[in-house]
Amino acid sequence: ALSSNHPEAGLRVYVTSDSSDVYEDSFMKVARSPDDAHNFHPTLLLLGIRLGIDRVTPVYRDALKAALHMEQSIGIAG
Hints:
By secondary structure, the protein is α+β, with helices and mostly antiparallel strands. 27% of the residues lie in helices and 19% in strands. It contains 3 helices and 4 strands, in the order αβαβββα. Strand 2 and strand 3 form a beta hairpin.
């Protein structure tokens, strides 16, 4: 709602509720300009996932480290 109410910020937001699945068609509806299908806007992906109950489950550690090292990553919140 915040990004929708302030389009001058130039940021769009795509949110998953309780899954890490990102569906291309849904994402494109958010990221693309309605008047120009080839024009993409900066889009923040917020993934609602649980990585463990009281700590990060070991099976996720390497993938999480790799994702956080990506230039596009802005971090993690919990």
